[in-house]
């Protein structure tokens, strides 16, 4: 059983405010392999965030099944859902840091809330993690005093505290310039290689980072197309995929190989 996440013919609709229904996912099936990086790309409003919410059990499928590490969570609730969610680390758009807490306090939060570790243990763990994400010396600053890239690194450090087996990133480079974007994706790739978690990155374009994705899923009008690599996408015959490639991928094939 090597799948971290599996969608089996998942349908998700919402009632439209003016009446009628909007079909966001129209019977999609895909597998997210364990210990690899999958990028889910698609235009704005195509259902990328809804897909992540289905994985976390924050939104329920109308039909079909969602499996996490082989366990069907489609109708799970209460304690079972809590247990499933505890396997995830999540980094949403905008980092979601607490403005009134320092860098140290933000990163320490999951350890304080979810574990019985002593303050001394927490201090050591947080310090190690801040060194790892090149944030040492910034522990007493508040989020507003940090650059966008540093805020993302604090968000990543916090999401990693409980050693998740699956990391979900929802448009994690929003608001960053292209240089910062590359740096953050390289950091994700290095962190993933070191810790071996399953990584799911949602993005409105295909990250122009060679070697980042082991698999790319393109979400368009309720359908998902699965590709084994960003390079494989260029061979698709489907018009909407060709259009997406033309609009967002640009010079990907000239991008240089990076070390993970
Ligand atoms: N709770 C909700 N109620 C009604 N419609 C929703 C809800 N959540 C999302 N939607 C709709 O579903 C579609 C996909 O949303 P979303 O997954 O957030 O898109 P994106 O790909 O930009 O992340 C959008 O049209 C959005 O308006
Ligand atoms: Mg979204």
What does this structure look like?
The strands form two sheets. A six-stranded mixed beta sheet has the order 6-7-8-3-9-10, with helices on both faces. A four-stranded antiparallel beta sheet has the order 2-1-4-5, with helices on one face. Helix 3 packs parallel to helix 5. The protein is an alpha/beta fold and 260 residues long. The C terminus is likely disordered. The longest helix is centred in the last third of the chain and has 18 residues. It has seven helices and ten strands. Strand 4 and strand 5 form a beta hairpin. The protein has a domain of 70 residues. The two termini are 26 Å apart. 32% of the residues lie in helices and 25% in strands. The site of magnesium ion has 3 residues, from helix 1.
